[in-house]
Amino acid sequence: MTAREALQYSLNLPAVEVLDRLGPSRFTAVLAAAGVGLRLPEPAAEPGLAVALGGAGITLADLVTLYTALSNGGEVAPLRYRPDDPTTPHMAPPGTAIFGPLAAWYVNDILAEAPPPPGVLPAETRRGRQLAFKTGTSYGYRDFWAVGYDSEVTIGVWVGRPDGTPMPGRSGRLTAAPVLFKIADLLGSPASKTDAPPPAGALLVGRHGLPLRLQRLDPDQPARAESSASTPMIVYPLDGAQLEWRGEEVPLEAIGGKRPFRWLIDGIPLPPGLPRRPIYWQPEGIGFSQLTVIDADGRSARSTVRLAR
To answer: Which residues partner with 143 through β-bridges?
Structure first.
């Protein structure tokens, strides 16, 4: 799996693996230098790998402040809620960098091509803003985030319950991202569309054109066969998930493999959908179901999910 796929689909294991290499304490120290302090369950405790999966608290304003760095060459910027507002107080001095302009450009290039959530048309069809965006779900299904940005605005959306009660089966992609795109459409198209050129040193090559140490997170391990790397994988709903279901259709998403995909629910095929568009499943009731996706070469993946009220 590529870093691009892992980031666009908010996959957990790659995020934990990268944080393990970087070090949770080093990661939180960089955020603290930018004026953003994460709220840990035990204030005196050392941060752990759960930080990669939402196992720490952060305010919506702080989260949006961090995302301003992606459209600002890696440097955080004070927030303005309206163009003519004074900037909000910020603990970090102006120009504090949390990463370099090259890293910011790479992330922007990935997130600008993230597939829209189910039910949201591409920006070209909506004639709206072309947002780079990211979603997330906090530990315990308590918070659902979506943050999107372009050269003019950064938009943050939080969805959850005021008392912190978990909402199993929800996610930032399905719950917060549609609100994000509605807000972007209300703001209208940007005044100017400027695509920043790649910075010096950017590698504009395919995966196999990269230097060996950039092709894999652990280049010392033998590479898997291409057929294994291209096996389809179900990214929603994940195997073992419990979904809170109220009678609505459930979107199905898979990556990898060779399209077109065929989906089966408990061995019964679903009608084929349009290429590159989400497939929806209308469950008949609560309980366990087995989902199967089969790609054009016959490779398959399965997940077992439980629908509950």
So the answer is: 160
